[in-house]
Design a protein that fits this description.
The structure holds six protein chains of six kinds. By secondary structure, chain A is mainly α. Chain A has helices spanning 2-22, 26-46, 50-75, 87-110, 127-135, 139-160, 163-172. The longest helix of chain A is centred in the middle third of the chain and has 26 residues, at 50-75. By secondary structure, chain D is an alpha/beta fold. In chain D, strands 1-2-5-4-3 form a five-stranded mixed β-sheet, with helices on both faces. A two-stranded parallel ribbon of chain D has the order 6-7. Chain D has four helices and seven strands, in the order H-H-E-E-H-E-E-E-E-H-E. Chain E is an alpha+beta fold. Helix content of chain E is 19%, strand content 21%. Classes of the chains: A mainly alpha, B mainly alpha, C mainly alpha, D alpha/beta, E alpha+beta, F alpha+beta.
């Protein structure tokens, strides 16, 4: 049962990952990326990490995908299959990708990792365990992370802000 | 002074009715019965009277009605039934339909009108059916230059996403389609799909007004998502669980709304904004941007989005009830047996009428109280629509980003104070469990 | 039944797709897509190991990782919008004189 | 009929010398007009709360300016024109009213001028009364009077493909009439 | 605080109306009761008698075929044309009578004001719809028929608000 | 203080500058009307920059029928049914001032009872128009109840008008020489009962609409037309009174019997959209008051109409008469050459004069304020086009 779900998820994830890079329209690429993220969330659910899966959906589909699609609509790229994408570069890219795949795959296949098995009886970590970890040992990291996020949002706002509009709007308010 | 059209012939009229009957009969024998048989071969069937029911024996229920009870009992506990009929889509769609009708009648009453009146003799109760049929037969106009796949898929996505939220809402103990351990987060994660759908649909219809409407929908939903999350946070602290069933069960002593009134208010306001209902129906403000992101919808596409938004209404009302109004808890008012003494008697008909083996007083009571509370919340949402004008986008954003977020924090700190002061929470004066 | 290696293979496939995108694509948004794919593949591997060990640290790391990549996307998209406003294009080969 | 009408306006002229105590407002206003402009501004008639002043096209702007600055006539209720084909003239009427001078609330001065019908051109009052903008634009398309200094002498109310003579001229006939 | 009271008042005002009487006038089932028998005119006094201005009624025994109604209508709607009738009347030598096209008529009633012989009045009947335009042209014979109209509903003001009732 | 020329030129300069330097994706041109649900028979082209309107160009004329030209082909009585077409809801007022002008030209006075009935019809008609306007203002701001209530209560007044004049909207009631017919039996009691009930309803309107905090947020401080600007733009009616100028033709230049009636001119000094919406409500209260006085002071019997020939010839000359309609001062400039037909008729209508304030107020405001500003100007497109 799980295996068929796994194969289906794999097809969806890898297929839409390829589509997100190769689709003709950038918007479809964005949608495909969101579907790929959903597929990854599906893997998380299979791996007994529902909290992370929901977090993934909320962040990637609810925020990142919206941001990306919004940017795609905003920049209105004329034609996304750019002329500068030469054949040589493409072949090199495919070779590089395949090379990495073969190399890492063969290393993985010959390593002892293949002998590792999931422990069926291992305890499943629920939200409490994660929360405890976040708030005790990793609490400084959490704070730093919060600061990072805040500064990133502020930075993005500062970057995308338009000065001319701000100046004009202030007197009317 | 109505009169019939000049080319009316009584013979034609009778002929058309006869033809209709014939067509229906032919369809039933040639299509519907084979399909039922075909389905029955693949559906696992229960054991009745000591033998496994086969598709051929299935129709013996027609002769012996008492055999239906075990079958019904079997089907009621299958996942398919739960997802499609009772706590899931069918039930929610029924409530959505009832909500649309009640909304129209209530608003009409408030506005000194009569509302739907003619369809279905009694106060127009079949108006929705008539509207649905009309929408079904309407031509679907796809604007030229639109992005066709997204344009067709988005309404369907809208309905299915709304149904996914509905699937998370428990109506009684154990009566929920998907009992996820992180149900609350799941609900919020799925609600995050809606801005994406609205944005994609508005973009795909290749028109200016929908695009402005889509942007407004995006702004509005993102601005209200944060107070929406935050207002549910103290509930999680109080019940120390993310599972919706657990949250509802933890309120058997008192409802959360007594301790979290401000958060309940914020949640209610945010869910109104999330639902795009008046006073927050800016994405569909017809006097500014025609119909917002729904401008180019026609026929059943519009119907689907309407259905989806009312499903969402039910889902959010249910969520409100689960989070703040104690879910299904309430005094037991249903008797232990539907007809006293039916269980012991051996009359099959009496047993069937008393729904012996099916009737569970606790569950029925839970569903009853849940429904009562949900209906009250829905009515409140409907009345709000009657008395309010639409507000402006900048006021809305200001409300969402500044006022509501601050309000949620006030109540969050109160709850924390109570917990650390040892009044509530684990080991407190008032034990929740 | 699935084994940890299955998930790791999927992660490797996703990473190689990401590498391919990074090398071939000249569209700034597609580059961001590639980066996101690689980040997600790593998350997948982390969760798989966390399930295998079993240890909650893997999930905690993934939460951090997701948050950081969200921040990164926000800034990246901001830069793309600014660059688009200057160059009227999102092709990175056009961005020759970002220095001034 | 056209001859008749032109005669009437001249017959109805009222001389200012004739003392009339019934209309005190008219008297003060018209006296001050008369003392400032003399023969350049003819008084066509005066009634209670109404009076009509006929000026030459070149004096239009200064009369309007005088009325605005000295008597508080600050807006235009309507600006219109009447076509007199017999005289080969078009009469322009500005109905000036006052919101700032409480004495002149009920009063309306009809400032009027006559321009040549063949090449109607007149100075625009838009710099004196901003409220005249759409009225003059309407007069332009309805009677064909070109207003010098008006920023938009162009189509306003008529259909976009209007290709006939201006419709309020007397030689434009409604079909079938 | 002002905001809260304003909002509560609005809420109260809205909910109060749920129990008020419906004001809607259900047209085909109920019909309005009108004043009098329709608009009539007394040429001697020169004043009309109030009434609804529905379709006309023509008294053949009084019509002289003077065309005054047609002249009055000429600048307004051009709905009235004079047609020849087969009947012979002493006062109507030319035997012409008005024929009214209700596709054009604006129901201003100035033709009634123009008739000096008490021949043309207006009635209560306003339900004139038909399937074709030609059915809207009423000949003098059709105009002579007095229509039957039974409206009995009018606005009543009760304790629970105004409503349309008998 | 802000100077209007400066403001206009500034806005135009800004618009020009923006149009010049714009990339195509900055400004979005929206056509509001004629098929837009928030416009009526009217269109204005707006350009929005984000949420801000930077350029407005009104384009009326969709329902232009050339009434002024048509009037030259018909005699004074035949003009009456035509002249009321532009505002059929306010038909008693729009024919009122034409009747006054013709009476002035012919040189007659209306019998006293006729004057009272005419003023009564005018007040009822004004109430009915204002309610219609208010209903649309409600639905423009998304308040569906405020659409249904005034539209329903308008029935009370239409019922009275129907009893009085014989038609529900196109009344053709005020004619040169008086009114068409005397009031029917029991009219006074009926009128008093319904008007009193209606006045009670106005309080409910205030509760649910005008005092609703959401509406206040939406309209207060929006579209400010200061007193100086209002005077310079020459606006009229409720728009002018909302800007703090107590100008009402009924008071400043009383026609017919209005000098015997005791009433106040209602005006507000906040100059914003809310004031423009609230002044009509105050006016409606005052109208109810006036109606009660009119019924009280009306002579018990007497003529209602000065008998005039159908083809009455007016004396040569010209006149300008105005009344206070639902949309402000409504004047008719009638030139006569002695024939039964007028030589020239010019209508100076409130809607056309208020139109000038539309681009002035909309430029620089938000898109969400557009309905709140546009409909508060009391602009009736059909009347402006004539």
């Amino acid at each position: 049962m799980v295996d068929s779900v796994f194969i289906g998820l794999s097809i969806i994830t890898v297929g839409s990952a390829i589509l997100s890079l190769e689709s003709r329209e950038l918007l479809y690429g964005g949608i495909a990326l969101a579907i790929s993220m959903l597929g990854i969330a599906g893997y998380f659910i299979i791996l007994d990490a529902p909290f992370v899966a929901m977090f993934q959906i909320a962040v990637y589909v609810g925020a990142v995908a919206v941001l990306i699609i919004f940017t795609v609509m905003l920049v209105r790229a004329p034609n996304t299959v750019t002329k500068k994408e030469t054949r040589k570069r493409k072949i090199a890219g495919i070779l590089l990708g395949l090379g990495f795949l073969v190399m890492a795959g063969s290393i993985l296949g010959n390593s002892t990792v293949t002998q590792l098995k999931f422990n069926e009886n291992a305890p499943v970590f629920d939200v409490q365990a994660i929360g405890k970890g976040l708030l005790t040992y990793y609490s400084p990291v959490l704070i730093v992370l919060a600061l990072t996020l805040a500064s990133a949002v502020i930075g993005a706002l500062a970057l995308a802000r338009r000065e001319d509009i701000e100046e004009r709007n202030e007197p009317t308010n | 002074m109505g009169s019939l059209t000049p080319d009316f012939r009584f013979g034609n009229f009778v002929g058309s009715i006869v033809w209709l009957v014939f067509v229906v009969l032919a369809l039933v024998t040639l299509l519907i019965l084979p399909i039922i048989f075909f389905v029955l071969f693949y559906v696992p069937l229960p054991e009745v009277d000591g033998e496994v029911l086969t598709p051929y024996l299935f129709f013996s229920m027609m002769v012996d009605p008492s055999r239906t009870l075990p079958v019904v009992q079997f089907f009621i506990h299958t996942d398919l039934f739960r997802a499609a009929i009772f706590p899931g889509f069918g039930f929610a769609a029924l409530i959505a339909a009832a909500t649309i009708f009640i909304e129209r009648k209530l608003l009409a009453k408030m506005q000194l009108r009569v509302g739907p009146l003619y369809a279905g003799k009694v106060e127009g109760i079949f108006q929705l059916l008539a509207d649905g049929l009309k929408l079904l037969t309407k031509e679907i106009i796809v604007p030229s230059g639109s992005d066709k796949p997204i344009f067709w898929l988005a309404p369907i996505m809208f309905v299915s996403t709304a149904a996914a939220v509905v699937a998370l809402i428990p109506v009684a103990d154990g009566w929920v389609v998907a009992d996820v351990s992180v149900g609350l987060i799941a609900a919020f994660a799925i609600l995050g799909f809606f801005p994406l759908i609205a944005l994609l649909f508005s973009w795909s219809s290749n028109s200016k007004y929908p695009f402005i409407g889509g942007l407004r929908a995006l702004h509005q939903m993102i601005a209200f998502e944060i107070p929406f999350f935050l207002s549910a946070l103290p509930v999680v602290i109080l019940s120390s669980s993310l599972n919706l069933t657990e949250i509802a069960r933890s309120q058997n002593l008192f409802m959360n709304i007594f301790i979290l009134p401000i958060n309940a208010f914020v949640f209610f306001i945010s869910s109104l904004a999330e639902l795009e209902r008046i006073p927050f129906d800016l994405p569909e403000a017809e006097s500014e941007i025609v119909a917002g992101w729904l401008t180019e919808t026609t026929g059943m596409l519009y119907g689907l989005i309407q259905l989806g938004s009312y499903l969402k209404l039910y889902a959010l009302a249910g969520l409100f009830v689960v989070l703040f109004l104690g879910g299904w808890s309430g005094p037991q008012i249903f008797p232990p047996e539907l007809i006293p003494g039916a269980h012991d008697s051996n009359l099959p008909l009496l047993q069937m009428l008393a729904l012996d083996g099916l009737y569970n007083p606790v569950t029925v009571n839970s569903i009853f109280w849940f429904m009562i509370k949900t209906i009250i919340v829905i009515l409140l949402m409907l009345i709000i629509r009657g008395i309010n004008p639409r507000i402006r986008i900048d006021i809305l954003l200001h409300t969402g980003w500044y006022k509501l977020i601050v309000l949620t924090f006030i109540n969050l700190f109160i709850v924390l104070m109570l917990i650390y002061g040892g009044v509530i929470g684990p080991g407190g004066l008032i034990s929740i469990r | 039944m699935n084994q940890p290696t299955d998930f790791l293979y999927i992660a490797i496939i996703l990473i190689s797709i990401g590498i391919y995108g990074l090398v071939v694509k000249r569209n700034a948004l597609r580059l961001i897509f590639s980066i996101e794919l690689i980040a997600n593949a790593v998350n997948l591997a982390l969760i798989a190991f966390s399930r295998m060990l079993p240890s909650p640290e893997g999930q905690i790391f993934v939460l951090f990782s997701i948050a950081i990549s969200a921040a990164e996307v926000a800034v990246g998209l901001g830069i793309i919008i600014v660059a688009y406003r200057f160059y009227k294009d999102i092709d990175i080969t056009e961005y020759k004189n970002l220095k001034n | 009929m056209d001859k008749n009408s032109t005669k009437t306006t001249q017959e109805n002229e009222i001389s200012l010398k004739e003392e009339d105590s019934n209309y005190p407002l008219s008297n003060t206003l018209l006296t001050s007009i008369n003392s400032n402009f003399g023969d350049n501004a003819k008084i066509v008639y005066k009634k209670e709360y109404r009076s009509k002043i006929m000026v030459k096209p070149e004096n239009l702007v200064e009369t309007a300016l005088f009325l605005r600055n000295n008597h508080g006539f600050d807006h235009v209720e309507s600006a219109s024109g009447t076509d007199y084909p017999a005289d080969n003239e078009i009469e322009l009427n500005y109905h000036l009213g006052s919101y700032s001078n409480i004495d002149y609330y009920p009063y309306i001065v009809i400032l009027s001028t006559r321009v040549n019908r063949d090449d109607p051109k007149s100075n625009s009052l838009i710099n004196i009364f901003p409220s005249v903008e759409y009225h003059e634009r309407e007069t332009y398309e309805m009677l064909g009077v070109y207003f010098l200094g008006h920023p938009r002498n162009e189509r306003f109310i008529l259909p976009e493909d209007w290709a006939d003579i201006p419709p309020l001229r007397k030689d434009f006939r409604i079909k079938g009439r | 605080m002002n905001t809260a009271t304003g909002y509560i008042k609005a809420l109260q005002s809205g909910t109060k109306h749920v129990v008020m009487k419906r004001f809607t006038f259900r047209y085909p089932q109920e019909k309005l009761k009108f004043v009098g028998d329709g608009y009539q005119f007394d040429p001697k006094k020169g004043v009309g008698i109030a009434g609804i201005r529905g379709r006309h009624i023509l008294f053949h025994d009084k019509c002289t075929g003077c065309q005054l109604c047609a002249i009055a209508c000429e600048g307004i709607a051009e709905a009235i044309t004079m047609v020849k009738v087969d009947e012979q009347w002493k006062q109507n030598k030319k035997s012409i009578m008005p024929q009214i096209d209700y596709g054009k008529c604006v129901f201003c009633g100035l033709c009634v004001d123009a008739c000096p012989f008490y021949a043309l009045y207006m009635t209560d009947d306003f339900e004139l719809s038909s399937y074709t335009k030609s059915h809207l042209i009423y000949t003098p014979a059709q105009l002579a028929v007095k229509p039957k109209y039974d409206g009995e509903v009018e606005i009543k003001i009760g304790k629970r608000g105004a409503y349309h009732g008998r | 203080m802000s100077n209007i020329e400066e403001k206009i030129s500034e806005a135009k300069k800004l618009a020009l500058q923006i149009t010049r330097e714009t990339e195509e994706d900055r400004l979005m041109t929206l056509s509001v009307g004629p098929q837009h649900p928030g416009s009526g028979h009217f269109r204005f082209v707006i350009k929005v920059d984000g949420d801000y309107i930077v350029y407005v160009d009104p384009d009326p004329g969709y329902v232009h029928r050339g009434h002024e030209k048509m009037c030259e082909y018909r005699n004074h009585f035949q003009n009456i049914p035509h002249l009321e077409r532009p505002v059929i809801h306010d038909s008693c007022n729009i024919t009122y001032s034409y009747s006054l002008a013709v009476e002035d030209l012919v040189g007659i006075t209306v019998p006293r009872r006729g004057q009272f009935i005419r003023a009564l019809a005018s007040e009822l008609s004004r109430l009915s128009y204002t309610l219609y306007w208010l209903a649309i203002y409600g639905i423009f701001l998304g308040h569906s109840t405020m659409f249904m209530w005034p539209a329903g209560d308008r029935e009370l007044l239409i019922d009275l008008l129907e009893r009085l004049t014989g038609a529900r909207i196109t009344n053709a009631f005020s004619i040169p020489g008086g009114v068409r017919c005397d009031i029917p039996n029991n009219f006074k009691e009926k009128c008093l009962a319904q008007v009193n009930y209606f006045e009670k309803r106005l309080k409910e309107y205030e509760d649910i609409f005008f005092n609703n905090p959401l509406l206040r947020q939406r309209t207060e401080g929006v579209g400010i037309l200061t007193k100086e600007d209002a005077i310079k733009l020459g606006v009229t009616g409720s728009v002018l009174r909302a800007s703090g100028v107590p100008f009402d033709v009924r008071k400043v230049e009383p026609y017919d019997v209005y000098n015997e009636i005791d009433f106040q001119v209602q005006y507000m000094k906040t100059c914003d959209s809310f004031a423009r919406a609230y002044v009509p409500l105050l006016d409606m209260r005052e109208s109810c008051h006036i109606i009660r006085q009119l019924i009280d002071k009306m002579p018990e019997s007497g003529d209602v109409r000065e008998k005039l020939q159908f083809n009455i010839k007016s004396s040569p000359g010209e006149t300008y008469k105005r009344v206070e309609s639902g949309r402000g001062a409504l004047g008719y400039h009638v030139v006569s050459d002695g024939s039964p037909k007028p030589y020239r008729v010019k209508a100076s209508v409130g809607s056309f004069r208020n139109l000038l304030a539309l681009p002035f107020l909309l430029t620089g405001s938000k898109l969400g304020d557009m309905p709140a500003i546009y409909w508060s100007l009391n602009y009736w497109p059909v009347e402006a086009d004539r």
